Inverse folding.
């Protein structure tokens, strides 16, 4: 019997979507307003889910306090109030799209989650636009 437990979190960050190897026209055509050279911000909502067996001693799949602390240490402390393009090494050569941010978050958390558990990251860039990555 496997159960999925989830924790919600939030962070604010600025980004710009563009490729330096593309012309200004092509960047504008593909990325639109997200190619604003002066960056723009998003209020990201995050749902991190861990699925696994219920520990018979504790009744938990995972202590959500532990998950909360992992998200704080590895996601909020590294991404919150940052300019993703300039402040976060993972995006030095990687476009900080919601897709890529979700993958970066998953990669940061995965080493800290029990191997027998699966990890899923859902990232909302706006209330209506969200992406899911589970490895
Ligand atoms: Ni944007």
């Amino acid at each position: 019997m496997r159960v999925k437990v989830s924790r919600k979190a939030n962070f604010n960050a600025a980004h710009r979507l563009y490729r330096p190897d593309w012309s200004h026209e092509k960047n504008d055509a593909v990325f639109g307003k997200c190619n604003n050279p002066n960056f723009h911000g998003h209020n990201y909502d995050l749902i991190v889910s861990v699925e696994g067996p219920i520990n018979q001693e504790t009744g938990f799949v995972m202590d959500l306090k532990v998950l909360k602390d992992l998200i704080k240490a590895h996601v909020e402390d590294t991404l919150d109030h940052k300019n993703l393009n300039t402040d976060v090494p993972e995006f030095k050569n990687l476009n900080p799209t919601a897709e890529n941010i979700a993958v970066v978050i998953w990669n940061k958390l995965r080493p800290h989650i029990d191997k027998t558990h699966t990890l899923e990251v859902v990232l909302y860039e706006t209330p209506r636009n969200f992406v899911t990555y589970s490895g």
About this structure: The pocket of nickel (II) ion is lined by residues 15, 34, 40, 42 (CB under 6 Å). The chain has one domain: 2-14+42-133.
